[in-house]
Design a protein that fits this description.
The chain is mainly β and 191 residues long. It has no helices and 19 strands. Strands 1, 3, 5, 7, 8, 9, 11, 12, 14, 16 and 18 form an 11-stranded mixed beta sheet that branches. The relative contact order is 0.12.
């Protein structure tokens, strides 16, 4: 079978699913630090709580009535070295799968949606506390439908920027009084 690698490092990622898979099966996993996800994660009625940043470079996060809580940034991207030898972020091969009303994702800081693949966002709730950037390299990263709801709940200014009209929220609930929308499409606006 596939192997899940769990390791601790003082200056790098604290947890890495590298090409394998993990199923929380109703349990809670709390990680104090940064995480790179490069494999499949099935929340499966469980909770994954991460205090740091998440780099989702590949694989699918299937919520299946589960909860993902991120204290820092969420990047649906991967790290790459450019021609000048500097690290930069580029598109991911990862996806999010939110298909049940109980599916919940919370991002405490900024969110970057930049994947080669489209996400499945047909139900559940995404709570965003920081800025949102999408379609940086590929278009159509957020195509929410069905009953999926996105809540903008930050306490400071939030800038939401879609770089193409191929992405859109289904239901957008703006709870923050200081939001700037740039080229954002949505089906229903509340708040």
């Amino acid at each position: 079978g596939q192997r899940v690698y769990l390791f601790v490092a003082s200056d790098a990622k604290i947890w890495n699913v590298n090409g394998g898979s993990i199923d929380l099966n109703g349990h809670t996993l709390e990680i104090d630090g940064d995480v790179e996800i490069a494999g499949d994660v099935n929340l499966n009625k469980g909770s994954l709580k991460i205090t740091g940043n998440v780099l989702h470079s590949s694989g699918t996060i299937s919520f299946n009535k589960g909860m993902l809580e991120i204290g820092g940034d969420y990047r649906l991207q991967r790290e790459s070295i450019n021609s000048a030898g500097e690290m930069e972020y580029t598109y991911s091969h990862g996806t999010l799968k939110m298909q049940y009303a109980e599916d919940t994702m919370s991002v405490g800081k900024d969110a970057y949606f930049d994947s080669y693949y489209s996400n499945t966002l047909s139900a559940g709730t995404m709570k965003l506390f920081g800025d949102v950037n999408t379609d940086i390299n590929y278009t159509g990263n957020i195509r929410a439908s069905g009953t999926h709801k996105t809540e903008l709940v930050g306490s400071e200014e939030q800038v939401i920027e879609f770089r193409s009209t191929s992405s859109y929220f289904n239901e957008l609930d703006i709870q923050n009084e200081n939001v700037m929308l740039k080229h954002v499409g949505f089906g229903k606006l509340t708040g």
